[in-house]
Fold Cytochrome C552.
Amino acid sequence: MLTALLFCGAFTAVAKDRISKQTAECLECHSSTTTGIVKQWEKSAHWSSGVGCYECHKAEKTDADAMDHYGFTVAIIVSPRDCGQCHAKETAEQEASHHAKAGDILNTKDGILGQTVGGEPAVAVACRQCHGSIVKVNADGTLDTGTWPNTGIGRVNPDGSKGTCSACHTRHRFSKEQARQPETCGKCHLGPDHPQKEVYEESKHGILYRAFKDDMNMDKSKWVSGEDYFDAATCATCHMSATRNQGVTHDVGTRLSWDLRAPVSKRTANSPEKLKAMKDVCSSCHAGPFVDGFYKQLDEFVEFYNNKFAIPAREIRALLIKEGVLTKANFDDKIDWIYWELWHHEGRRARHGAAMSGPDYAWWHGIYEVAKHFYTELLPEAKEACEKAGKPEVYKQIIAKYIDGRKEHEWYTKGFDKKRIQEMKKYYQERYQQKVD
């Protein structure tokens, strides 16, 4: 046993006294068979606190995933419920968060796309790796490879708990420093329908983070914005970490006053309190008028998206279904795909771009794409579908209700405002001293 402990290298006499006999026996094998894991653990706060292999992986024989492992009863998965034996507050907040519900998406239209249109192998290596699986246990206590491994944030564990702490605090270091970095969130929060990582990278926050990362004290136990670091905000800063006025939270929705994921955005429950909490974070670095001005711009942008595009698009599709032009099934009509991407991809990009100070995502990857597809795909496809169904009057009803008489759509029905075009030409001629066609 002493040889094994010396192999680990980092053990001092004090540390030897801290670890349990069971963990010491684990290390006799694992210090050579899974050396990397042991080395990671040696650099963790768990190691310095005497929390080892056995303390985390021990199980009762009655546990669904209990298995015999060289005379020990253990479980492969260390669930939030296990972590909660020491981290009760963090576990309770995580279980109440939207993260813990991430697996529910597999029962939505996203699930239909992945499981039916795509296929099970794609779901296993893609969807479930972020959203989580329902982990199935084999008769011998090992885990079914169709549902494991993954560290999906909404994973349903064999003990019934949801989520995994190691999604953010990667095992076996479980590092605070690593969890505070935006790259951690970027495993899942990127891509065409939720590009928070890309938006962050083009924002001032992301630019400053890359420039001054080494000055942000991210390895410190205490990490309060405006006290321990000043140069930039990370994902954790805004959504989880402490300020002078509020503590750390593991409920990532505590400070979100808008739902920017839905087809049509709505205020979240307890929105005023959540907005106040987020403004408090912003105020660690920004003055009050700056913060208020930012949220005024955001609110106006979201309402604009809702009223000009999202609500009309949703109601147009619903009317086509009601009138029998489209079927009630999802993704069997071309307009289903157009509408899906309009809100699920382009609309989300626009709203998250506005909320996270990413101008290119708010416009070129966002509202520009929304507008383009609303006018050049959604409406023309609705017209064609009505004509094919022998119901052209339905399209006329759509135009009369959602387009005609609305100032925001006048350019589409009456053409561009000639006076406005001339003003724009004059502006560019004066600015660039050249003729504009």
